[in-house]
Write a structure and sequence with these properties.
Number of domains: 2
Pathway: Purine metabolism; IMP biosynthesis via de novo pathway; 5-amino-1-(5-phospho-D-ribosyl)imidazole-4-carboxamide from 5-amino-1-(5-phospho-D-ribosyl)imidazole-4-carboxylate: step 1/2
Mean pLDDT: 93
Protein name: phosphoribosylaminoimidazolesuccinocarboxamide synthase
Order of helices and strands: EEEEEHEEEEEHEEEEEHHEEEHHH
Low-confidence stretches: none
CATH class of the largest domain: Alpha Beta
Radius of gyration: 19 Å
Shape: globular
CATH superfamily of the largest domain: ATP-grasp fold, B domain
CATH topology of the largest domain: D-amino Acid Aminotransferase, Chain A, domain 1
Number of helices: 7
EC number: 6.3.2.6
Strand content: 25-35%
GO molecular function: ATP binding; phosphoribosylaminoimidazolesuccinocarboxamide synthase activity
GO cellular component, one term: cytoplasm
Structural class: alpha+beta
CATH architecture of the largest domain: 2-Layer Sandwich
Number of strands: 18
């Protein structure tokens, strides 16, 4: 599913395309596009279905905590959803000292940051260690130039959200993450960190959980059975890695050079990535991908 020739006017994102259905609903088409370095790298068979159906699983599991935007799932690649105005904040919940992006807790910690999004971090922490204070909410702004970590107090002070709206979303994010960790643990996985988005229903005014939930793209999962052993040995936690395709492009060219045409990804790597997405779906949901 490429997202081409949908036959309707669509707003195209990196992975998802949005089609207006009527005044209150939209269709979200999760494509097989694999993005990286702000470019399309490949089309990965079944990836869109994996992401869409994984989200559907988690939206169903968490709807008693907070309502979500789901109206129907008419096709593995398609979600019909309520039309919402998203809040300009990503609600990132973390349980471990890890990450590699500029906004990640580990990258900031290595640069000397000891107050991260309003949370005091002790000295002497090591990469991939479980956070001693438990799960923490570490929001980031959604800005055109670059996202930045921000505290709850700053969100209110800078008028990104009202206190009441923040309280609803923050409480829901922490509860949804805790339930996600519980179910993941029962399935042999550690839900390490994730991001949530919330929006206000344009018709009812309700705050809803939107976008995606606990997918392999929005979340980090480690294998629980080998975590302690590998950490004790100074090794990285075991995961079902999806980064190898990005690494291949780095080895072949400068993928950030937009003047340079990207080479075609080898078919065997693309199919291996597809297999790993399907494996993650089956581990997360305990359902057969069919």
């Amino acid at each position: 599913i490429t997202g081409e020739k949908i036959g309707l006017e669509a707003k195209r994102g990196k992975v998802r395309d949005r089609v207006e259905v009527d005044d209150t609903t939209i269709a979200l088409i999760t494509t097989d596009r694999q993005s990286g370095f702000d470019r399309q790298l490949a089309l990965v068979p079944f990836k869109g279905a994996v992401l869409n159906l994984t989200s559907a699983f988690w939206f169903e599991q968490t709807k008693h905590i907070i309502k979500n935007h789901i109206v129907a799932i008419p096709h593995p690649y398609v979600t019909i959803a309520r039309k919402c105005e998203p809040f300009p904040i990503e609600f990132v919940v973390r349980s471990y000292m890890t990450g590699s992006t500029d906004t990640s807790i580990w990258k900031n910690y290595t640069q000397g940051v000891r107050n991260y999004c309003g949370h005091a971090l002790p000295e002497g922490m090591v990469k991939n260690q479980k956070l001693p204070m438990g799960n923490i909410l570490t929001p980031t702004t959604k800005e055109e130039e670059h996202d930045r970590p921000i505290s709850a107090e700053e969100i209110i002070k800078e008028k990104w959200m009202t206190q009441d709206d923040w309280d609803v979303c923050a409480e829901a994010a922490v509860k949804v993450f805790a339930l996600g960790q519980k179910i993941a643990r029962e399935h042999g996985l550690i839900l390490v960190d994730t991001k949530y988005e919330f929006g206000r229903d344009l018709e009812t005014g309700e705050i809803l959980l939107i976008d995606e939930v606990h997918t392999p793209d929005s979340s980090r999962y480690w294998l629980a059975s080998t975590y302690e052993e590998r950490i004790s040995a100074g090794m990285e936690p075991e995961n079902i890695d999806k980064e190898f395709l990005r690494l291949w492009f780095r080895e072949q060219c400068d993928p950030y050079d937009t003047e340079q045409k990207l080479p075609d990804a080898p078919r065997d790597l693309v199919l291996e990535l597809s297999r790993r997405y399907i494996t993650l779906f089956e581990m997360i949901t305990w359902d057969i991908f069919d």
